[in-house]
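Table S5 (text form). Sequence records supplied for joint modeling of the two-component complex.
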Amino acid sequence: MPRSQTSNRVPHFSRLLREVEIFAASRLRLLPAVFLGVLLLMGAGDDSARIDRLGHQMMCVCGCNQILLECNHVGCSYSSRMRNELVAAVDAGNDDGSVLQIFIQKYGTTVLASPTTVGWVNRAAWVMPYAALALGTLLVVFVVRVWRNRPLSAVVGIPAPVAGAELDRFRAQARKETDL
Amino acid sequence: MSALGSFVLLLALALAGYSFLAGLLALAARPAGWERLSETARRAGIASFGTVLIAAVVLVTSAFRNDFSIAYIFHHSNRDLPLPYKFATLWSGQEGSLLFWSLLLSGYGLVLRLRHKTDEALFAHASVVIAAVQVFFLLLLNFAARPFAVMQGTLPADGNGLNPLLQYTEMVIHPPMLYLGYVGFTVPFAFALGALVMKYPGDKWIHITRRWTMVTWGLLTCGITLGAHWAYYVLGWGGYWGWDPVENASLLPWLTGTAFLHSVMMQEKRGMLKVWNMWLVFTTFWLSILGTYLTRSGVLNSVHAFAQSPIGGWFKWFLVIIFVVFAAFFFANKSYLTSEHKLESLISRESSFLFNNLLFVLACFTVLWGTWFPLISEFLQGHKVTVGPPFFNSVAVPVALLLLLLTAVGPLLAWRKTSLDSLRRNFLWPALGSLVVGTLMVIFGVRPWRDLTYFYALMTAMLATLVGLTVISEFVRGGRVISRHTGQNLAASMLHLCHRNTRRYGGYIVHFGVALLFLGILGTVFNQEAEKEMAFRDKLAIGPYTLVCLSYTQEENANNSADVAIMQVFKGGRQIDTLYPESRFYPASQQQQHIPTVRSTLAGDLYIVYEGQNPETGRPIIKAHLNPLVSWIWIGVLVMIFGTIVALVPNAAPVRATVPARLEAAPVGAGD
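The corresponding structure-token record, covering 852 residues in total, follows.
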């Protein structure tokens, strides 16, 4: 590869990066509006989509341990009734929270397919995995720093040339560590 | 027959007990002639396999002979049960499956004890540990969950039959595979504890352990996948993974076992992570016992919780005892587990393994946390809450994506230190390919800013592509170097390369399988379903397909009767297939079961369920699912298993490089 070609590329790449930066900065100003739009889009939806979403947030209570809308348990005396109740609750104009509350009052808290975010115990269910990730990452970074600063035992100055059996031993170690 | 079965089980307990006590005495007290005592312990351990095998044969024979005087056979078999399922009776109930556990453990013990010449002292220690675990399971079989307990009162004419959910070909294979995985983790644990007790120097034990772990890991992977495949083709809800507590229980040791398979390389190559590896091996074994406890005790509500029994207490104590024993030896002997090297750079293979292990252990913790949270909530709040798929999908998917990222990045990092230039060189094409896939997905309508699931789908596709391309680029680059040296064509060179370092390239093949697996999972985001009461000639449209109800018919055999729907499948106005979903009734157990029918292609599955008849209208209900890319899950796992087998093949003799300058062209940036 001729040197001139390589060197020509660098400023071009920098210019491209700069243009991307300017473009991104200009679009960042629009971020709040875009975010609001996305929220509105997420909030929109017809009743069937709501029923589908809510039906996947609840369990069938017959003991089959399946999501309400996925229960195909033969002769299940609960799932059909619960589906009808869900449709009725949505048709009655209840919002999502009220619909879920109706089911909790009738079937107990286990009807919800996942913990709510009410109360510290339920919140802990959601927070704990992310907290563990954060703590674990900090721990790994800490370990890496400690290990990087660990003193080496006997590597001082330039090692003397080796030969014979010692050289073979080093070659074997190099092969082991690099797989060549 | 029941007397013979009970007797041999008692004999097995005596032999395992002797193997444990005599072995322990020989190794701990070293009395005069301890070598001979240790040898008798080894032989007793071998003999225990024979006795447990006889017990298992007696139980299976009793099922074939319809011996309903044995309560277990009465509850899990019947006269008309097809022969393969009579064989599966052995693991279809609690007592039988515990006997099966013991049989497999004795089998692993047999192999270990027969190979004792490899390292007599270490194998003697491992044999004692295995004997201890054998004693626990044989105590259960003799006193708490007796498979040969006899029926009281009048002998019944026929049995209750096997659970219809279990009457499926995969059910004959899935539990043995899963159990081989679960039980197999006892062996690495036995070697680890043996090495800890002995303060065993060197890395020989880790070589032995790693091989056992790979075999066990492969079997557990098969077992889990067969379970998912069975759930997909039998349970009829259109999915393959429901985050059921018992499914989760099988995933836990798999996650820590996978972490161990990665971190053990740090110990082999750099003499690091010795303490961590000890605890990983222990945790994996501990979780496999915990999994057995969850499956068998019915402590958590699950579709698998067919076993409500008092054996939970036995398991709890066993879990505590093994923890205490391991921790005691660890704290007594941990001084010899010091690291031999230091970490030189954050951008290195060592660091990537640390993060890899963090994520695997975190994934394990997340699944364990979610699985046990209902009990934690009951304890703290006084009432249970359900932790189902929405929770697991929310918290596990980000971790899985991070793992996928590391799967792509990790193999391209060099041991000790990686230069940014080498990173850029190795990543350029895979990253560009990944970006192209992402762009194409957005062009074809995936809008990640509209829904988090679409964002996950996009990330999964891009990262899976990145993994696939990095693996391919590694093979191609290595193959080119060999090709230059030997003059072989690229394909032959890549084969040669693979044979020269089977562990490394077998591992890459496993990674490629993981990429395909994730590709299959991402299809879930685009699933469709439709349901309709269908009379003659009614049509149901789903995706590009139109289903036309041709007819309904009935079939009957000695074991079950079935209502069968005959559905014609049209695509683009042309008939392409006829499918036959069934709704079966099993008279022996008085249970009904839907058997879905699936038209599988690489693009997706058309999955049809005959859900029975509407009680109000009397009309049959057909539910159809269109599940894109599911086949890639099974293909991905097959590739993973192939990679594992490749990794187990011994290396060909290394090529000695005589021209040092040429080494620069070799893929030195990567190791296993």
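Note: Helices of chain A lie at 3-28, 31-43, 47-55, 79-91, 96-107, 120-149, 164-178.
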